[in-house]
Amino acid sequence: MKGRIIVAGIGPGSSEDITPAVVEAVGKADAVVGYKYYFQFVQPYLQAGCACIDTGMKHERERAEQAFQLAEEGKTVVVISSGDAGIYGMSPLIYEMCRQRGSDIGIEVLPGISAFQKAASLLGAPIGHDLCLISLSDLMTPWEVIERRIKAAAVGDFVTAVYNPRSHERYWQLYRLQELFLAHRSEHTPVGYVRQAGREQQQIEVTTLGDFNPEEVDMFTVIIIGNSQSYIDQGRIITPRGYYRQPSIDGAQHKIGQDIMIASFRTIEKELRRQDYSLGHKWALLHAIHTTADFDMERILYSDEHAVEDIYNKVETHQLTTIVTDVTMAASGIRKGALQRLGIEAKCYLNDSRVAAMAQTEGITRTQAGIRLAVEEHPDALFAFGNAPTALMELCELIRKGKAHPAGVIAAPVGFVHVCESKHMVKPFREIPKIIVEGRKGGSNLAATLCNAILTFDDAQQLQPGRDL
Predict the structure, then answer these.
(1) CB atoms closer than 10 angstroms to residue 157
(2) pLDDT tens by residue, 314-360
């Protein structure tokens, strides 16, 4: 009577994660071959007289040979692997040995839930898009090959699950992986790791690529690194597939261009001369460079300490409900989705019927007149200037007279006459949070994008721009 070999993945380590097909196979086995630690998970399903044969850790070849010897005696042998037997498990070795022996023993493979799948389910939904698996064990794979694969995964923006991340002897490889990923991914990329997934000692942690500490993991840990679209929400990692960018019933597109914007921000971040900016300033800076493609913004964009954070806090607490711009082009560039989501109105008084009469009577510019009217009706608004230095100078005078109390000021007028002076004039108001494009550069597009940076500051930590596109 000819025996057979069934190679079975028993899952990551809990009874509920063993498939019914594996339970049935184990229940009919004459012998189970595997590493002794895993016998405890199949013991309840064994029939009387079933032999459990252990060959010890790192003795996989001996384990496979034992399975063939038993099968050649006519026995039904189940070779068990943790997780899935085809993923860093016994299946390839069994097939290779079958070929090497010239054996006609029947072989069947029963899949199991892999450790990375179990870890992913515990972390949320981190593997929702293209992914790869990498083992850091260099016992049978040269490190230079492993490093090439790490680089390819990082450059290719794959969600990446890491097996065998660290041991007592292999202490540096995980640090090198982190270094390679940081060369191609944002430091804010979500990272989750699960120790002893599915077992009593289970531990779950969510962090970022920049904050990840390799010292906190061991050989019983599976690490999952998100891609550029992955984000953390309420302690869970989500990697979107893209359903919310699909056409709606009426044919409208959702979030067109967000992927491009995210990729652009990642590129800009890597090319900054400095990496130690505060989160608020960096968020504003990334928006400014993205809008202008001008890395000189890194030199000329000024913001008060915590200016973005302080203004956004007023948005969150509903103290800020109005944004006033000097010209209509600046107002039109503020994202309508963000304004609607946050309950904020963007206003420009330039075309108000009262402006022309006031400008003529007072002998001032129309933008100055617009700011005077705005201050009368919204003295505590966020004021954004992208064109007219005279309007910014008017606001400064009204602040000095105690008539205006802005929630913040974005000073980005552009040009050659009174532009630099107007920006110098606003700086002394230290109690008002300010973002200033120093020198002659500026523009309505900059004023608008800096408003957008403030309105989306809650996306800054994950570097996920474009929510309201």
Answers:
(1) 19
(2) 999 999 999 999 999 999 999 999 999 999 999 999 999 999 999 99
Work out the number of other CB atoms within 10 angstroms of the CB of residue 257. 12
Q: Which residue has the tokens 């949070």?
A: 433
Residue 308 clears pLDDT 80, i.e. is over it: yes
Nearest one of 386, 409, 413, 387 to 398, comparing CA atoms: 409
Q: Is 237 within 8 Å of 194 (Cβ atoms)?
A: no
Q: How many CB atoms lie within 10 A of CB 421?
A: 11
Place of tokens 């063939």: 68
Angle at alpha carbon of residue 273, lines to 268 and 279, rounded to 5°: 65
Rounded distance between C-alpha atoms, residue 270 and residue 280, angstroms = 17
Does residue 290 have an active-site annotation? yes
Taking the C-alpha atoms of residue 400 and residue 405, their distance in angstroms, rounded to an integer, is 10
Cβ burial of 401 (10 Å; 0-12, 13-18, 19+) is exposed
Please tell me the distance from the alpha carbon of residue 101 to that of residue 46, in angstroms, as a whole number: 29
Q: Is pTM, for the whole model, over 0.70?
A: no
Structure tokens at 136: 């850091």
Cross-sheet strand order for the sheet of 203-208: 131-135, 159-163, 221-225, 190-195, 203-208
Q: Which two tokens stand for residue 407?
A: 């929630």
Active-site hit among 129, 290, 306, 405: 290
Local confidence band at 262 (pLDDT 50, 70, 90 cut-offs)? confident
Q: Comparing 76-85, 234-243, 326-335, 370-379, which segment has the lowest mean pLDDT? A: 234-243
Q: What percent of the chain has pLDDT over 70?
A: 97
Please, which contacts does 262-270 make with residues 24 or more away whose CB atoms are closer than 8 Å? 262/228, 262/229, 262/463, 262/464, 262/465, 262/466, 263/228, 264/290, 265/290, 265/463, 265/465, 266/185, 266/186, 266/228, 266/463, 269/186, 269/463
Under a CB-based contact definition with an 8 Å cutoff, are residues 208 and 185 in contact? no
| CB proximity list for 353: less than 8 A, separation 6 or greater | none
Sheet with 322-325, side-by-side order of all strands:
301-303, 434-437, 408-411, 382-385, 322-325, 345-348
In angstroms, the CA 326 to CA 265 distance is 28
